[in-house]
From TrEMBL:
Domain Amine oxidase: residue ranges: 10-433
Gene3D superfamilies: FAD/NAD(P)-binding domain, protoporphyrinogen ix oxidase, domain 3, Protoporphyrinogen oxidase, mitochondrial, domain 2
Protein known as: Protoporphyrinogen oxidase
InterPro entries attached to this UniProt entry: Amino_oxidase, FAD/NAD-bd_sf, Zeta_carotene_desat/Oxidored
Transmembrane segments: none
Gene expressing this chain: hemG
Length: 435
């Protein structure tokens, strides 16, 4: 069988690898100048660092398992404590599950909430266990019904904003955090091993994962696929003949390519919204960095506080110098900018985004130094949104696509935006076209 995978992000590369391992001839067509999608490494301050996704969920085997299959070392954060920059101060991040408080005493002591917000959160109300819970509901609405609006504003929003760059009241609980429905019904929290880290990465950065995946594959960059046609013998894609096709591209290009073959799926995918974000990576002389940058893994910023950045990761502290490849004389950190609906902010020049990041870092942690290097990586339309009803949309898309044997879709628009979820999505697509 000859297969064409359209899209060289992690989902597409995994699909191509699995099909190749099964003995099929595979070509990957990637529109940009490199494979990897939203996983990318670049040089900043003499170190090679991730300027896109920097980690994967450790407790899900899809990501760490693949890394080990590829012979890559898996590393975990050295410093895992995070902060919330809210109400004028850096405060400890209380223990939550995607913004659902798990330790009310810790929440009360953190200072994250006002007196009124704390009083409401400490007197949680029962959430209806009938149709309102059985149907889909926005994460923010579910948390607010139980703990109040301020918990959503100062905890749920920044936590989900880091993953989806969306708004908590617009993100589907069933699609993004189904375990919260169980908690709302009164179920016990699944008990995991507290010694097992939540996050992991490949040594030297997540970029090593996609670089290793691409090794040995026929990846052709700079190829924009504008049409997908069914033929008597199979498919024709950008002049390539194929018996099977995997579309591992964002929703909008997938919608265009499916317009004739799967018009129902095309219409569904055309309606998917995306948020644009930017990652600002900064390198500082170690002597210029205050202790606050060394004592935590970073901080989150609730949108209600009106800051310019939405989070900062203290890269050198979080991962350690061995992971990022920086010397002891350089400290690396990064900020992220942009949520759904903030496209105008991201239209500003790189220098403005760097200046905005530095201004917020100065106020948050007292970092007043000039960086020795800086890099702005923009991810236009980088993160698909999962609104209420998302799972129904995905089911309809896949049902329509399945009517054309040998055709499958995968990627962040369907089953999760994280690295591990995209890996699982790519593997499922490979199985779909070559069962």
């Amino acid at each position: 069988m000859r297969a064409v995978v359209v899209g060289g992000g992690v989902a597409g590369l995994v699909a191509a690898r699995d099909l190749t391992a099964a003995g099929h001839e595979v070509v990957v067509l990637e529109a940009t100048d490199r494979a990897g999608g939203k996983i990318r490494r670049a040089q900043v301050g003499g170190a090679t660092v991730d300027v896109g996704a920097e980690a994967m969920v450790n407790r899900r085997a899809d990501g760490v398992g693949l890394a080990r299959e590829l012979g890559l070392d898996v590393v975990h954060p050295v410093v895992a404590s995070s902060r919330v920059w809210t109400r004028g101060a850096l405060r400890p991040l209380p223990r939550t599950l995607l913004g659902w408080p798990l330790d009310l005493d810790g929440l009360a002591a953190s200072g994250v909430l006002s007196d009124e917000g704390r009083e409401r959160a400490l007197a949680p109300r029962d959430v209806p266990a009938g149709d309102e819970i059985d149907d889909d509901v926005a994460v923010g609405d579910l948390v607010a019904a139980r703990f109040g609006d301020e918990v959503v504003e100062r905890l749920t929003e920044p936590l989900l904003g880091g993953v989806y760059a969306g708004r908590a009241r617009g993100i589907s609980t069933r699609a993004a955090a189904p375990v919260l429905l169980d908690l709302a019904r009164g179920a016990d929290l699944p008990v995991g091993d507290p010694t097992v880290p939540v996050f992991a990465a490949t040594r030297g950065g997540m970029g090593a994962l996609v670089e290793r995946l691409a090794d040995g594959l026929d990846v052709r960059t700079g190829v924009t696929v504008r049409s997908l046609r069914r033929t008597a013998a199979g498919f024709e894609v950008a002049g390539e003949r194929a018996d099977a096709v995997v579309l591992a591209v964002p929703a909008a290009p997938a919608a265009r390519l499916l317009a004739d073959l799967a018009p129902g799926a095309s219409a569904e995918l055309a309606a998917v919204e995306y948020a644009s974000v930017a990652v600002v990576t900064l390198a500082f002389a170690a002597a210029d960095v205050p202790d606050a940058v060394r004592e935590a893994s970073g901080f989150l910023v609730p949108p209600v506080d009106g800051r310019r950045i939405k989070a900062s990761t203290f890269t050198s502290s979080k991962w350690g110098a061995a992971h990022v490849g920086a010397g002891d004389d350089v400290v690396l950190l990064r900020t992220s900018v942009g949520r759904l609906g903030e496209e105008r902010l991201l239209q500003r020049p790189d220098d403005d985004l760097v200046a905005a990041s530095l201004a917020d870092l100065h106020e948050a942690v007292g970092l007043a130094a000039t960086p020795v290097d800086a890099l702005v990586q923009r991810w236009g339309g980088g993160l698909p949104q999962y609104p209420v009803g998302h799972l129904g949309r995905v089911a309809r898309v896949r049902a329509d696509v399945a009517r054309t044997p040998g055709l499958a879709v995968c990627g962040a628009a369907y089953d999760g935006v994280g690295v591990a979820a995209c890996i699982a999505s790519g593997r499922a697509a490979a199985r779909d076209v070559a069962p």
